[in-house]
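Cont'd.
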Amino acid sequence: MDSFVTPGSMEAISSVYLTSAGKRDGDTETDTSREMKTHFRVCRFIMETGVKLGMRSVPVATACVLYHRFFQCVSVSLYEPYLVAMSCIYLAGKVEEQHLRTRDIINVCHRYFHHSSDPLSCDSEFWDLRDSVVQCELLVLRQLNFHVSFQHPHKYLLHYLLSVKSLVNRHAWSRTPVAETSWALLRDCYHGTMCVRHAPQHIAIATLYLALHSYGVELPVGQREWWQVLCEDVTKEHIDAIISDLLHLYDMEAKWT
Amino acid sequence: MDKDLLRQTLSYHGQSLFAHLKCEQSENPDFKAIEPDLSKASYQRNDGGEDKALVEQFIARKADILFAQSWKSNAPVEYVLEDEAEEPYAIMPPLEQFMEVSFEERRNLLYRDMERGDIVIGRINSIRDFGFFVTLICMGGGLERDIEDLELTALCPLRDVPSNGNHDDPLSYYQMNDLIRAGVKDIDRYHEKITISLQPSSLATNLVSQKLGVLSKDDLPLHYSRSLRVANDNTETYERVLEGTLGYSNPLNVEYLLGKIGISDTQPPSLMRGLQSKHFLEEDFATTIRKKQSASWALKCVRIGVDHFKSGRYVEAMNEYNKALEIDTNNVEALVARGALYANKGSLLKAITDFELALESCPTHRNAKKYLCQTLVERGGQLEEEEKLVTAEGFYRKALALDDSFPDAKEALRKIELLIQKSLKLREEMAAREAEKAKNVETSAEKLRKILKEEKRMKRKRKRSSSSSTSSSSSSDRSSSSHRKSKKKKRKHRRSSRGGKRQQRVSSRGNWSAADDEEEWYPAPPNTSASFLDPKSSRYRSFDVPNRTEEHSQHYSKHRSQTHSQHSLPSVSTNAPDNRGRFEDDPFDISPLRAECSKGKGICDKTGDGEVNGREMEASRGRKKSQECHFGPQEIPRSSEKDKNSRTSSTSSEHSSKSSRNDLPSQSRISTYRRSDSGRYGITERDKEEENRGIRRSDGGDNRSSPYTSRNGKSSAGGSQKKELPSNLLDLFSQIAQFEKEKCKPQK
């Protein structure tokens, strides 16, 4: 379905960006890993754009999930991933009630690909880009059967943080940045598909677990583990699996950017 | 790097982590600095396992971020007691309870973590004479622990129980099993003794708002009541409780909790190297790009607009400028261009606003400054012609302040300063002269008054049941009262002189009418809206020149018609002969004002004064004419009203109709003057108002007016004329002389 592929600068630049990167890594890469690399890069693009647009964590997460779910159904060679990403950002803003203007999205994305360039003037290129974003948005909606509302780990993580906080000494808590670390880990996990493969509560618990573990915080022991209490159906294996996925993402970053 | 934190981590993980750290952070100078301290301690050797190794590697790699001092959100978030009824997020029972932490453990933890200033809630279990004992059931204010079954007892000594005002034993207020909220005063961990207090001073600063003392069951904290529910029901899990709360469903709970915990969502933390906040440049952000883009789009429109302007297509140019300003409000170029267009069209004030706005955003814009100077000078010129010398001067000064070297401004400022000085001198002279004449004229005024008194007595015989306004005052009053009256008028004028507003005039009018009751020859119509007590009106009088001599008015009209088409003086000047008759009443009405003016209220007053004097001269001439003048003008203005459409003519005709009725015409005149000065705005409304009033007065069979007119009709010319003369004779002769001077002045 090539009809909506964007004319103009964006497609040209981004395809160059992708193929040249692919060539750089050599032919030994399999298709899947190449795809994973693309997805990683595009998700990085989404997260960067999210920060520049002032998006909150939850809409950015929604955008990433929309993107991952979309490409679970279709092949990446058929659609321009960066365009899909832009449309996912736009759609996520609507879903999570943080409405973004297409003008801003286009401005930021254009500058992402053309560093230090002047903003686009109000000409046909601009309107074409805008049309593409809007059309692609409809495409994404249809591909996902209009199921665009997701439960995210964020609110679970925050409540868990409060509950765990009451278990420890207040001074110890204030000097240990468990909250910041777990929040950072949670945001970073959207670079990969783990965010759609695991339940939100599990992801929340795993990130909290890793944060506490990193700083060596010792929690009181009762009949039941604190993580078991917070979510009945989570097991240590789940937690370990999620943690390993997460760590893998950091390795990917080292490899691919 | 946070040394203590690292030490804590290392002791938890062991030596292997230390090895990883050394390897991964070998280039980190911060780490190198503390490495020697860390290596002093020996950490136990853990048998890692592969998973552990990966985690340790991760920690080691990210150590520079994880242990950075700036990583912690430094703002210590104070515990804010939420309004539990709102429940912005889910308030959960203590985790200890779910975890089923052992009795001992919980007790130890509590003693470890409880501090002075915390809030506890308990039940009174015994009251003694030295205080009462409380069994703690839960903590309030942030430390959520499951302590009820620990059965800890705290003592609240007598001195910490607040007295309840009526000198009873304060303990008598409390009973067994009362629920108490108290502050922790002291903890003896060794002996496991807790002392509590009901004094607010015992609380920590962030908890001071909490009310201490007896509680009802409803006031118990939510986490406690929920924990009771969980204790009673085995099937309640954390998750179920969470999903059952209202706060869980709040869509804004994430935002709220982030604020509560102290994490920023606009500069979010990340452990990815590429997403560290230092890599984000301000100019890549959406808002910055949008601003730049709006400015460039607006500039495009401005360029097109300037093209239109140069080709004379002003409407299209204005449209383009407005479009540009819609895209980018306060765009400097668009404002300057639009200002120039306004100035060309003649809307000087709008132009000035635009230029000033432009200069606010960009104070060094050359064109804006230049145009603004020019426009200010032009506006000053306009004002000067309108005789608003002070305001004009202000404008010239402003122009000079902007640009010292602007020659026109300097020139104009110099000229106007001279003018102002001259008019000041003139006023001083007039004042001096009037003071003299006041003494001379009095005697003749007294004579006149006597004649008038007799006349009035005759009239009263004819009409006993006549209007209330003609009150019989003693003859003795007249002579002195006229004198008093002028003084009162002066006083009232002074009071109301500054107000150019109707309210002030109303009040002065009120005073006026009160005073008027004493005087019979001047029934003050209470419902006149305009007061001639406004000294500014003298300025306005200069616009309407009905009372000038032909040549004077013509001169003025020439002068005026050049600048103000609205004032269509030629038409007015033809009314001059009529007006002369009309102004028989004026001296009467004007004089107090003049007297005020002569006190030097304002420069404008003085310039106006000259005209006033001139008018009065006319009036005096008119007086010498026969009575018929009175009615004559009545007819002529009517026809002139029909003929002329200009505002001034209508106002002058209005006043002619009014004056013929001897309602205070100067009042209306003044209001009309004001109207013409206030210029282009809202004149028509006021005009209509005045006209209506005038018509009402003219039509309405006022007791006041009818007896007056009938009186006019009946009394001899001399009599009625004399009535109007009274205290104004004072100034009469001075006016003549001054008027002559005035004639000379504009011709200079």
